[in-house]
């Protein structure tokens, strides 16, 4: 069973959230920034930071001229700061090798630092209007339910791209809108825990027709409190707030509950290139030592 693209596009046109990166005049670079920020991070947290970045670094060369530390500091509390570091590296390549423009070809995009399959296709689709399947968690869930009658999408698989591509309208100018609509449906209506089927615009859904069967989910909610991620975040907080390299003691005081975990977190930040150690043994954000 295929999805009714006309119905879905009409629903999206009428009800889509007014997100700033969806508006006319937004550049491919600014859309790329939004896509990187939105990975594993809610829209409400991303929007104010994205607006700041668009004003501060409207083109790749502007970010490329900044230090990695400046970019990491501006990333703030978005989480997974390696994304910021990869985006900074990407900006340098775009400025040096692509005329300060984000390319529209998926294969070329995949060759850029920090750009994976989803991001490459999202930029090609949403920035350049190309007819390419864009598959994220929301899309996989909608397809699993509406087309296959499964409550859960299961683990990502190579067939996801093929199945989503088969749903795209033939007309290129409608395919990109359909992709955005499919994603919007999963994000706002066909959600993971509390799908609101009464608001769903689709006239047919295999999951609803089957009685909305439940499937045992193997996913577990990841805790944050007390994790290595939290320890890393605390250490980065100290360095983001500092105007010069800091002594090891200040980092030790930032995470006292488990010295071994703190040492592990510090080592991982160094290995990831997010921070660096100065010759006199102090620590700073990347590029600021």
Automatic annotation (TrEMBL):
SMART domains linked to this entry: ENDO3c
Keyword Disulfide bond (UniProt): no
Lineage: Bacteria, Bacillati, Actinomycetota, Actinomycetes, Mycobacteriales
Organism: Nocardia speluncae
Keywords, alphabetical: 4Fe-4S, DNA damage, DNA repair, Glycosidase, Hydrolase, Iron, Iron-sulfur, Metal-binding
Cofactor(s), by name: [4Fe-4S] cluster
GO MF assignments: 4 iron, 4 sulfur cluster binding; 8-oxo-7,8-dihydroguanine DNA N-glycosylase activity; adenine/guanine mispair binding; metal ion binding; oxidized purine DNA binding; purine-specific mismatch base pair DNA N-glycosylase activity
Catalytic activity of the protein: Hydrolyzes free adenine bases from 7,8-dihydro-8-oxoguanine:adenine mismatched double-stranded DNA, leaving an apurinic site
SUPFAM superfamilies per UniProt: DNA-glycosylase
Keyword NADP: no
GO biological process: base-excision repair; mismatch repair
Family: Belongs to the Nth/MutY family.
Transmembrane segments: none
EC number: 3.2.2.31
A UniProt-annotated Pfam family: HhH-GPD
Name of protein: Adenine DNA glycosylase
Residues of the HhH-GPD domain: 37-188
CDD domains cross-referenced by the UniProt entry: ENDO3c (cd00056)
